[in-house]
Design goal:
52% of the residues lie in helices and 9% in strands. It has helices spanning 2-8, 22-29, 31-40, 42-67, 90-112, 128-133, 151-158, 174-177, 180-194, 214-224; strands at residues 14-16, 73-77, 116-119, 138-140, 163-165, 200-201. It has a six-stranded parallel sheet with strand order 1-2-3-4-5-6. Helix 5 links the parallel strand 2 and strand 3 (116-119). The longest helix has 26 residues, at 42-67. The protein starts with a helix and ends with a helix. The relative contact order is 0.11.
């Protein structure tokens, strides 16, 4: 499929590896248990995340060998944020999770030679310098209504190092509850913030929800045009 898309379209082909580390720990141990592990049973948390990265190594290599030639971008995923900040303190992230992200993402970049797109919801402002340091080239969905995630602030502070893949229209409030004109105003604002100088791929923040009126979807793309 990747080969066909590469040869017959002008689209960028994104290979989504679904290689969580932090979120996988939450899934395997249960959210509450794993969050406690990070502080109260560090050897267990380290062992689990280390084994995850070990297990991903073969998967990543096979994937890159199969479709890497046809992919433009490789996507990785790990939700680190909430509405108001990180799920864990920055110091705990750096001690417990960052070493495994760094190891995994370096491996992917070394094998593929492709830019890395990180999907991480919520307020991730605090950790963005660490993400850049570890080789992340783009972030999604750019949740602009979350704390410290204002589009102008992000562009001003990180626009030289990151591409913003999303953030084009707030989906928490504006797209679902706003008028078509409010949607257009939102799109113009976010594009004015994020587009100058490049490094912006337009997309609404995350998925379009069931409450969104069709006319607001139309208004969003009319504003972009």
């Amino acid at each position: 499929k990747a080969k066909k898309l590469h040869e017959t379209t002008d689209r960028a082909i994104v290979g989504n590896l679904w290689v969580h580390v932090f979120a996988a720990g939450q899934i395997l141990r249960g959210f509450e248990n794993f969050m406690v592990d990070l502080l109260a049973d560090k050897p267990l948390a380290h062992a689990l995340m280390g084994r995850l990265v070990d297990a991903y190594e073969d998967r990543v290599r096979k994937y890159v060998e199969a479709v890497g030639e046809y992919c433009t971008i490789i996507q990785v995923n790990d939700d680190l944020g909430t509405q108001t900040g990180l799920q864990l303190s920055l110091s705990t992230y750096r001690e417990m999770v960052k070493p495994y992200h760094a190891r995994l993402w370096k491996q992917i970049k070394d094998l593929s030679g492709k830019p890395l797109l990180l999907h991480s919801c919520g307020s991730i402002y605090e950790v963005i310098p660490d993400l850049i340091e570890m080789g992340i080239d783009a972030i999604n969905p750019v949740q602009v209504r979350a704390t410290n995630m204002d589009s102008a602030k992000l562009k001003r502070e990180f626009g030289n190092d990151l591409t913003f893949w999303g953030g084009g229209c707030d989906t928490q409030v504006v797209l679902g509850s706003g008028t078509p004109q409010e949607v257009k105003d939102e799109v113009h604002r976010r594009c004015d913030d994020l587009a100058p100088g490049g490094g912006f791929i337009f997309c609404q923040v995350h998925n379009i929800q069931p409450n969104v009126p069709p006319e607001n979807i139309t208004a969003m793309y009319e504003a972009l045009a």
